[in-house]
Amino acid sequence: MKKLSLSLAASSIFLSMLFTPAHNETVQAKEMENKVNSSTDMVALKKPHTNSKAKEVDTKIESANQLKTYLDKKYSELKTDIVTVNFNYTVSENDGLNRPYDFFIDFNMSLTPYDLSFEYAMRDHLKSIKHQDTAIEDVAKARKQLNDFIEAMAKDVIEKLPNKKILGQDYYSWYLYPNLKMNLRIETNMSWTNYEPISTKHVWVDRPEDYYENIGTNMDSAYNEIERNKYLREYTQLKYNDFKITDFGWRKYLDDFIKFDY
Fold first, then answer.
1. Which one of 77, 142, 230, 262 is most buried, counting C-beta atoms within 10 A?
2. pTM
């Protein structure tokens, strides 16, 4: 048998050392350590430390200015299938016992393309030759879109101000003779509140949709109008503490057109 050269013998000894049980355990331990470190690094990349995780902060509203800013940012525009409604909010805070609310939200609605009001735009659409086949359905859909938008906005505000009484409406006032400031006109629409009277002697009866077309044509309409007037007179005499906080509700009795001819 031939003798191995020194270099070849050294190589053989080195290889035998690699496969000894002790060395194998060392290599396996090292591999395990590398896997653990690698796994730990991956976890660190995927899951940041809990303490540094950003948390979503709810918008805090405590004043009229903060509420206006919030509404301008989130509920400034509604694109219906007929017109775009722009909301230019005015928000005021009440501190007097003679008014029933804590906050009053005026929508100040304007339209693109321009029209006098949302209802005028709906009437124009109903009279349009171009849309005569679908006009009724178009108007019904646009009105629902507006109602849903305002209701969503109102419920959002109520949720953020749960202990406050809130009145929202599209309020518009002007003078027939502006230079003289005579013959004031006030029109309110889309009124809602989250409060109602604690108790009243009279009960409001909603007007039918065709009320202004048929007023006075029968006794029932005349009788109901008398009851509505009694309710409104009683309502105007109520003070802040005569109202209780409730859920959102449309208040048709606050939608009105008032003339002051002086």
1. 142
2. 0.74
